[in-house]
Amino acid sequence: MNTLPFSPAAERNQQPILEVLRQVLPARGAALEIASGTGQHAVWFTAGLPGWTWQPTDFDASALPAIAARAAAAGLARVQPPLRLDVLAPRWPADGPAFDDAPARVFDAVYCANMLHIAPWATCAALMRGAARHLAPGGVLITYGPYLEDGVPTSPGNLDFDASLRARDPGWGLRRLADVAQEAQAAGLVLRARHGMPANNLLLVWAREPLAAARLHPATPPSRSTDTPHAQNPQRPV
Questions:
Q1: What is the 3 state secondary structure string of 192-215?
Q2: Which of 49, 86, 123, 211 could potentially form a cystine with 94 if both were Cys, beta carbons 3.0 to 4.6 Å apart?
């Protein structure tokens, strides 16, 4: 019997995310995942991106054994042993040798899904600074989740989700894309691409490129469709 922790949201969104990753990532590379949670994304993406290695991490040390067990059950040696990483810490990871230690580790992609809205706002700046510090030349930061966009109507499901998050913790809540972009710019990153995703989520690609951040041409039009049923569940984002 499989007793590993399981996220229905990760199960739903992993294939749509993988399809975009195949478009925006090169054939080979090394990825660092922030806030890996159950490890479902790490395993699914590594299996679907055969030229990539994946370094899962999580703030919660108790999550690491299950991530390792899931990768082992899938027979994926390209999933690295998970590490405890506190995004707010001045050094990554929180335990063991730092990525900055010689020989320094750099990554072709840093991936973070569904973290910014269920963590203090300070984690946004920390994520941007840390990603910029550890990205290889030409590397990208990929963030996924729900955002508030100026000039784009927010879906009723996302409005309800935002209210429920703020009721649980005043420091949580959906983030304005413009505010996130400002923190990224301070770290030397700009928005390269915006991909509309199911259930009113966005996949955003950030890179060290001299692009005008004001000229954001969506990869897909802003979603104005009605919510899918699972998007209205305030307990777990898709």
A1: EEEEEEHHHEEEEEEECCCCCCCC
A2: 86
pLDDT value, residue 3: 87
Q: What is the pTM of this model?
A: 0.89
Question: What is the 3-state secondary structure of the chain?
Answer: CCCCCCCHHHHHHHHHHHHHHHHHCCCCEEEEEECCCCCHHHHHHHHHCCCEEEEEEECCHHHHHHHHHHHHHHCCCCECCCEECCCCCCCCCCCCCCCCCCCCCCEEEEEEECCHHHCCCHHHHHHHHHHHHHEEEEEEEEEEECEECCCCCCCHHHHHHHHHHHHHCCCCCCEEHHHHHHHHHHCCCEEEEEEEEHHHEEEEEEECCCCCCCCCCCCCCCCCCCCCHHHHCCCCCC
CB 38 within 8 A of CB 63: yes
pLDDT at 77 over 50: yes
For residues 182 and 218, which has the higher predicted lDDT (pLDDT)? 182
Q: Give the pLDDT of residue 221.
A: 46
Q: Which residue has the higher pLDDT, 233 or 128?
A: 128
Average pLDDT in the chain: 90
Burial of 107 (0-12, 13-18, 19+ CB in 10 A): buried
Instruction: Show Cβ contacts of residue 73 under 8 Å, excluding neighbours closer than 6 positions.
Output: 4
Residue 219's pLDDT band, with cuts at 50, 70 and 90, is low
Q: How is residue 81 written in tokens?
A: 């042993």
Q: Within 10 Å of residue 122's Cβ, how many Cβ atoms?
A: 12
Give the residue with greater pLDDT, 94 vs 158.
158
